[in-house]
Write a structure and sequence with these properties.
The complex is a heterodimer of chains A (750) and B (159). Chain A has 20 helices and 26 strands. By secondary structure, chain A is α+β, with helices and mostly antiparallel strands. Chain A folds into three domains: 174 residues, Aldehyde Oxidoreductase, domain 4 (2-Layer Sandwich), CATH 3.30.365; 182 residues, Alpha-Beta Complex (Aldehyde Oxidoreductase, domain 3), CATH 3.90.1170.50; 298 residues, Aldehyde Oxidoreductase, domain 4, CATH 3.30.365. In chain A, the strands form six sheets. A seven-stranded mixed sheet of chain A has the order 3-5-1-12-9-10-11, with helices on both faces. A five-stranded mixed sheet of chain A has the order 7-15-14-13-8. In chain A, strand 14, helix 10 and strand 15 form a beta-alpha-beta unit. In chain A, helix 7 crosses helix 8. The two termini of chain A are 52 Å apart. In chain A, 60% of the residues are buried. Helix content of chain B is 34%, strand content 16%. Chain B contains five helices and five strands. Chain B has two domains: 76 residues, Ubiquitin-like (UB roll) (Roll), CATH 3.10.20.30; 71 residues, [2Fe-2S]-binding domain (DNA polymerase, domain 1). Classes of the chains: A alpha+beta (750), B alpha+beta (159). The interface between A and B is large, with 58 and 59 residues.
Amino acid sequence: MALDDKQLYQTREFKVVGTRVKRPDGIDKVTGKARFGADMSAPGMLIARVLRSPHAHARIKSIDTSAAEALPGVHAVLTRADFDEITDDDFTADILDNCMAGEKALYDGHAVAAVAANSPSVAKAALKLIKVDYEVLPHVTDVDAAMAADAPVLHEGRANETVPAGMSPNVLSRYEFGHGDIEAGLAKADRVIERTYRTEATHQGYIEPHACLASMGADGQADLWCCTQGHYMVRNTCAAIMGMEQGQLRVTASEIGGGFGGKTTVFLEPVALALSKKTSRPVKMVMSRSEVLRATGPTASSSIDVRIGMTKDGQITAAFAELRYQGGAYPGSPVEFGSMSAFAPYDLENVKTVGWDVVTNRPKQAAYRAPGAPMAAYAVESAVDELAKGFGLDPLAVRLENAAREGTRASYGPTFPAIGLEATLRAAKDHPHWSAPLGENQGRGVACGFWFNFGGDTCVSLNITPDGTVTVSEGNPDIGGSRASMSMMAAEELGIPYEQVRTIVADTGSLGQNEVTDGSRVTFAVGLATIEAARAAKREMCKRAAQVWGIDEDAVEWEDGAARPAGPNAGKHPPMTIKEIAAIASNTGGPIAGHHEANPEGAGVSFATHMVDTEVDPDTGAVKILRYTVFQDAGKAVHPDYVEGQFQGGAVQGIGWALNEEYIYGDDGVLQNAGFLDYRIPVASDLPMIDTVILEIPNPGHPYGVRGVGETSIVPPLAAVANAVSEAAGVRLTQLPMSPPKVLKAVQGL
Amino acid sequence: MSKIHVTTSVNGDPTEFLCDADETLLDALRDRLGMTGSKEGCGTGDCGACSVTVDGRLVCSCLMLGAEAEGREIGTIEGMAKGDQLHPLQRKFIEHAALQCGICTPGLLVAAKSLLENNPDPTEEETRYWLAGNLCRCTGYDKIIRAVLDAAQEMREAS
């Protein structure tokens, strides 16, 4: 079966989609009016703070909260004892354990208690009065060390049936994908290389720390305001932890100050709800930056072995990778996605990946933009580059020679429908960047990347107001301009100006279930639901016009914002506009709306090729990014500015991952760089302009051909930068980040 | 702990507030005065999301005490537009799609306004170095730099 065999796409001329309209939340965001997670307050509200473990691994023998509780101004102290244990759902039990430690603190920064007080200063003082008796245990933070037979063990008995007997209990799952015969394929190669690559954990680095405001009444009804990528997920998770019915908890999503996957779970919200329940007062919680870095999800660190065989004319004969990812203290590192995506850009006869999910004494990983894929692509694209250059071949030509295309059986199973990888490679080859001259100590790198993209549960409600303007309610927090995109698609479908549509993000009481804003799904899935909701409203408006004209409703069609008689037998009636139909709606059957609920398949996989020029300073090892170009397939760019923005933002996060960013642990297992000074994300002066080329190979699974674009852009840059730096330095680098000391060592041959 | 009474000016309005001795100007603005346009991204002066001006000078309001506002003139994002007239930088940020999530936007706008007051005709490099203290994780800075340079040109042509 083809991956996206449903043909929903129809060629059409666009009037609104593809233009660069102004976003509806623009003025609020440039004037400071927009309200983010920490910007809400409530009458009588208490402030809560969290006490966190200073140890990487420790048994919590006892917690004495009496002195804290006795401090004037303190209204409640909370520990794990205040929560009911969850015994029937490991996934939610792990989330609760991460929000508030149970028997053991599993990482530096793990929450062990929380205080609600009448002011921040009282809450802070109370934390110092809580006495925790810890029994410090041996710890492990490195993925390879955690797999060793004698490694300190985090959990006993959590490994699933895929893990062979005799491995460390820290190894929880094994994944395998592929087809063909690796050894037979390698035997046909003119050269086989075998390399090990390592990447460090990086944080999503959203500028807005986690924040929420919870209010729970004595009747068991609760309201929660928070910054999240998915308030429906927050509702369902918190309801499970609190033992509430989902319908009794209404969650409203604030404006969200970045997420990149890191806000697809909960950290504070159950604690705030429990404190509100305990005190009968609204409770506000806001994390500090160091709490964000110590206790919210970074992505996995990885250790990856790659074996690839190639003929001297550039044909890949077999490819194998073994990927080991640590995802912190709980199951669920993104190694499965890494194993599935590693060789997705290639059409291979013999391919296999094996992935290992490993736990360590680090914070529970959270999704980070194309989770698991960037490190896999880094390893594979580094090895392909080394082979190509070793044979004196053009690295773009080698990728074109082996590129996955329509009909290719993907390494992870399905057969690809129409995809855009070749288009991005050809665009890269034809771009002036590819032939621009390079100077001394400079190098150019290219790499490809892939992401699956997702659909997921989605609800949209579209209402025609009495004056004929349109409101759209959707359930996905707008993280980069999606309200504009939804309004554009509704306007396109209805044939009315963009300015006559306003899209809002509705609370959990207003719509059915909505999947989190993740998997690059929103423009695809919510867009599809918006188009279908608009089509339902159009059908109803045609029906109303037919009623007025006294003709069959099949004899009415919708065009340019008006119902019109269709065909010669429909009679001669002047078009009836949306405004005219709305004005008489009350007399023709009542208010008019369209809605759509779906879990759409056919998200349409996405590919990109990145090209980067770097210069290495041979005296310091510092790397400068000189020029960067992104080539990516968007299917159809609904709002090109925001598509470019996703390309640029993903590329720059990847540059940070490649060059600077890393979680640094000391021998004591304590995070050493829990601040933006030492966890250094790229700043404006580190970068050139990031050029973009948008390719549009329509996704068969979307009415307008849209593919998600948000995640693919972070997949190629790690390898593209590594390939460029290796060329500039004259030596192959196999570990990230390529920080100045590491590059200097490599250049000096140490 | 008794509170400190502070008399100051915020965006030209005479303003008084009470704050703790160890309370930052950022917290005083947000929690005492309800001016939540300035954001806390780090609390350590590394991200610039809390950028304000004090007597015309660009500072991180998380690194200054509320009590130090006594007798000063504070400028925040809330004072940047004049009524319904957006500052050219605000307009250009919207036109160039120079924001995605928008959390860093107030700080970047305050910092960029300060740049253009000091240097009406900055180069791209000067703009990048001036704004290096304002972190943005969404955009890769490309559209932000374009918006600032475009606003600078429009403001020069208008003056």
